[in-house]
Design goal:
Blueprint: E1 2-5, E2 11-18, E3 28-38, E4 54-62, E5 68-76, E6 85-90, H1 102-111, E7 115-119, H2 136-149, E8 154-160, H3 162-173, E9 179-185, H4 191-200, H5 203-218, E10 230-231, E11 237-238, H6 242-249, H7 258-261, E12 269-274, H8 283-292, E13 302-307, H9 324-337
Parallel strand pairs: 6-7, 6-8, 8-9, 9-12, 12-13
Antiparallel strand pairs: 1-2, 2-3, 3-4, 4-5, 5-7, 10-11
């Protein structure tokens, strides 16, 4: 049941009510998704502003499990939501709604007549490598429900880096007809394999992390950090919780394999990578493309676009700093092809 609360605050809730018993007819709310418009958050860069043809406002969304999801809503001026495609943008590891490339998508797409709802998931900023992969789906669900409540009937899911596997999982397990496509930016192919063979390259340490995570699962300590750090894409060794390692990094049980999920997405998929991206290896998007176009795949057409960049590969290249305009242009053209 969708219920509107406090219209002046732009708050709504999705409630799940238990059926009334004969002895008690009062409604019981079991869970809800809600949002409200808030003032511009402190600390945002001055450059985080909309184009003249667009507006920018900020939301706080409450996921169905109570998690707070901060969001930026970029909208074209004088265009009703019912006639506008909205992109739900999900960031990568330890990022947030204001970081590249989500900021470029918000500014560029809204200037071109489309809306963007960019969210900070439960693994933003200092919560990196702490979350359970399956729980992030609730943050995306909350954003999707908020977009619908705002009047948007054509949705596209976009995920950058770690966000790519999160939107793949959502799109593969929610076949709602208003979700019209999926966009993967700087996507890895198989994160548990990559963690073991590229990020760590240390078999004894990888086995110790696996064993420690399983022991903590048995002890009910999933949210606690493992006793030793994990190799990371920055080249550092970083803290990680047991639940993050098991659901993202363990090649025995992790669900973070894009080559599995992409073929189960019954929507068109666009994959983009900056040629100067040192985080995502050149072969990884091709692994996803091959899986999406394999016999029996449900994907309704997958396309890979490599954005040219003459700079040497770097960590910075993972965020499309030199190709942001081309990123927006390519995505806009892909949406236009689909009349979105």
């Amino acid at each position: 049941m969708l219920r509107r609360l406090a219209p002046a605050a732009l708050a709504i809730s999705l409630t799940i009510a238990a059926p009334p018993s004969p002895a008690r007819a009062a409604e019981v709310v079991a869970a809800r998704i809600a949002y409200e418009e808030v003032a511009r958050p402190a600390g945002l860069p001055e450059t985080f502003q909309p184009a003249e043809a667009a507006t920018l406002r900020f939301l706080v969304i409450t996921a169905i499990d109570g998690n707070r999801v901060d969001a930026a809503l970029w909208e074209p001026r004088n265009r009703p939501p019912a006639e506008t495609t909205l992109v739900v943008a999900v960031h990568g590891s330890g990022d947030n709604f204001a970081h590249a490339p989500a900021d470029a998508l918000g500014r560029g797409l809204s200037a071109g007549g489309r809306a963007v709802l960019s969210i900070s998931t439960r693994q933003h900023d200092d919560r990196v490598n702490t979350e359970n992969f399956f729980d992030v789906r609730r943050d995306i669900e909350a954003a999707v429900m908020t977009a619908r409540s705002l009047g948007y009937g054509r949705l596209v899911l976009s995920g950058h880096s770690l966000g790519n596997i999160q939107v793949q999982f959502y799109a593969a397990t929610d076949w709602s007809s208003d979700i019209r496509g999926v966009v993967l930016l700087g996507p890895f192919a198989n994160l548990p394999w990559k963690t073991r063979n590229i990020l760590m390259q240390d078999e004894p340490a990888y086995r110790r992390l696996n064993e420690a995570a399983r022991a903590m699962l048995r002890d009910g300590r999933l949210a606690e950090r493992l006793p030793e750090p994990m190799g990371f894409y920055t080249g550092q060794r970083v803290p990680v919780t047991a639940q993050h390692f098991l659901t993202y990094r363990s090649d025995a049980v992790s669900a973070a394999d894009g080559t599995f999920w992409i073929r189960r997405i019954p929507k068109p998929v666009l994959i983009m990578r900056d040629a100067a991206d040192a985080v995502i290896q050149p072969f990884e998007p091709h692994m996803l493309l091959s899986a999406a176009n394999a016999e029996g795949s449900l994907t309704q057409g997958a396309r890979y676009v490599l954005l040219p960049n003459d700079r040497p590969p770097s960590l910075a290249g993972h965020y499309f700093p030199d190709t942001a305009d081309k990123l927006v242009e390519t995505l806009g053209a892909w949406l236009a092809e689909r009349q979105l």
